[in-house]
Amino acid sequence: MSAPLLKVENLTKHFPLGARIFRGPGAVVRAVEDVSFSVEAGETLCIVGESGCGKSTVARLLMRLTNPTRGRVLIDGTDIAGVTKQQLRAWRRRIQMVFQDPYSSLNPRLTAGQIITEPVENFERLSRARREALAADLLRKVGMSPEMMHRLPSELSGGQRQRLGIARALALEPSLIIADEAVSALDVSVQAQILNLLMDLQEELGVAFVFISHDLRVVEHIGHRVAVMYLGRIVELAPCEALFAKQIHPYTEALIAAAPVPDPTQVRLEAPIEGEVPSPISPPSGCAFHPRCPLAVERCHVEVPALVPIGDGRVVACHVRAPAKESATEPVAVTDLSVAGTAPDPRSALEAVNLA
Residue 169: is its pLDDT beyond 80? Predict the structure, then answer.
């Protein structure tokens, strides 16, 4: 079996805080704690969870916009978390990002064509003819007219700006694109267009996506696999279809139960969850979810559950529903697991559901 395109091992990020009377001198925000996963070429891995669970911090760590406290981020076997800035420059061509806000992520003083070609010109000089040809080709790829290359971002709609952001990300022909809430700022009808566009580009170019979102409807239709995060840790990772058919971890179950249902006649079970998300400055001992979990037992209060495989390509961190075998000396790493079978094409589900 070939190595995955992206492999994340025990990724951790702590943000130190200044000393205060009530916090003490060594207080830190534990934003990401011991996260591991892998992404194959042409695959979409979705990361979901409540606000503040560490999703966007993971995105910044993958791009090395911030340095990890510990852990590794491997692209084709090379740890980009440990390379120098000069070495990292070459890897920037392999991994790009689509940002959440299509309004603030574009330079308002540059035209659409300049925004698209600027990343390429950071690596090589382009003639005017090559710049215009590249901009026109990428605009066509994202469903925009080449004539729009002369427009400023202020002259474009929200959907057009997000398409422009995607075109910019494609300019360097990356293998992996990190999409951080890439459709959350858009109208529902425009969201469907952008999702179709991303799936078309994936089919055409073979690009892989790490798609971060809080919208479970979007995740269900675009993802191949889903990683559920809670307070900086992955608590469940599974093929998309299997996760939405049945949830194992109590937090995953509550998260999906709390999602809005578009059909007002459909009966929905109340989310079996109470309380607030604990502070990442002083997280609970043991399983971080135990103060809110209706299934918590004494072991949950004192021991952090390891991610263990339970079949069908799923791994879960839960002492009650996925207890580790007593004979196992070490938990199986998430990055060593492969999903059995071929991931279903999410396009058929998207076309069958009216997102509006």
Answer: yes
Domain boundary among 153, 172, 191: 172
Q: Do the Cβ atoms of 12 and 33 come closer than 8 Å?
A: yes
Percentage with pLDDT > 70 across the chain: 86
- For helices 158-170 and 112-121, give the axis angle rounded to 10 degrees: 20
**CA 102 – CA 133 distance, rounded (Å):** 24
Pairwise CA distance, residues 59 & 6, whole Å: 13
Phi, psi for residue 29 in degrees, rounded to 5: -90, 115
What CATH code is carried by the domain that includes residue 26? 3.40.50.300
- Region class of 312: left (phi > 0), else alpha (psi between -120 and 50), else beta: left
Strand partners, 135: none
Residues 276 and 200 grouped into a single domain: yes
Report DSSP state, residue 336.
G
Q: In angstroms, rounded to a whole number, what is the distance separating the alpha carbons of residues 232 and 33?
A: 5
Q: What is the pLDDT of residues 286-303, one digit of tens each?
A: 999 999 998 999 999 999
**What domain count does the chain have?**
2
Q: Of 151, 172, 193, which marks where a domain is finished?
A: 172
Q: Using CB atoms within 10 Å of the CB of residue 222, give its burial: 0 to 12 exposed, 13 to 18 middle, 19+ buried.
A: buried
Query: How far is it, in rounded angstroms, from Cα 199 to Cα 217?
Result: 15
Burial of 249 (0-12, 13-18, 19+ CB in 10 A): buried
CA distance 131 to 220: 37
pLDDT mean over 313-331: 74
Residue that the structure tokens 């892998």 belong to: 38
Contact criterion met (CB below 8 Å) for 299 and 320: no
SS (H, E, C) 262-303: CCCCCCCCCCCCCCCCCCCCCCCCCCCCCCCCCCCCHHHHHC
Tell me the whole-structure pTM to 2 decimals: 0.85
pLDDT at 248 over 90: yes
Instruction: Round to whole Å and give the CA distance between 21 and 117.
Output: 51
Query: Which residues does 202 contact at the CB level (< 8 Å), separation at least 6?
Result: 42, 44, 208, 209
Q: Which residues contact 225 (CB under 8 A, 6 or more apart)?
A: 43, 44, 45, 46, 237, 238, 239, 240, 313, 339, 343
